[in-house]
Fold this protein.
Amino acid sequence: LAKTTQPISMDSYEGQEVNITCSHNNIATNDYITWYQQFPSQGPRFIIQGYKTKVTNEVASLFIPADRKSSTLSLPRVSLSDTAVYYCLSGDGGNNRKLIWGLGTSLAVNP
Amino acid sequence: DTEVTQTPKHLVMGMTNKKSLKCEQHMGHRAMYWYKQKAKKPPELMFVYSYEKLSINESVPSRFSPECPNSSLLNLHLHALQPEDSALYLCASSQDRGVYGYTFGSGTRLTVV
């Protein structure tokens, strides 16, 4: 099964750009990389998904190099409200099409 | 409507009780999911329904019984739970299985006493 590894925690300050890197050495050819954000006592919220190169939406950017063994979620100009847990996910590469969740990165944005 | 609604938000039940968790979505999604989440852990998949049929059961104990009455509703029936089953239970939906942009509900915080 594909497995993702990401830092347990990160600290930042308001207005800074935050980059969270996830490694997925065994990613399968047909797997996408997906990122979710979760606040305490709420369900995860979909942020962004990509297969390769760069994807950008109104919230974040996702960079995936050619070998696809890692990905970087970039949050531009974070605010206090971006304090949350960020999960990196990949598919399981099989017919079940299940998501494999990383352990999450707890991001603390300080004033 | 772009939400997944879960009820109740909080539930306290005894080990001999029977209760149900409910989940509803009106986005026309054909895949629905139950997840269990313990504190400081990622969500763990329990069940997947695709087009109202159970397609994945992640070896969940029989004291948890899922039901999908129609394409908009998903229930999780609980019976004879253990204290270690206390957790946040999350429902999610997606357009189809393999479409990974899931929409999650806010969850039901379950406490078994």
Summary: The mean pLDDT of chain A is 92. The two ends of chain A are 40 Å apart (CA to CA). Chain A touches chain B through 21 residues (CB under 8 Å). The longest strand of chain A covers residues 84-91.
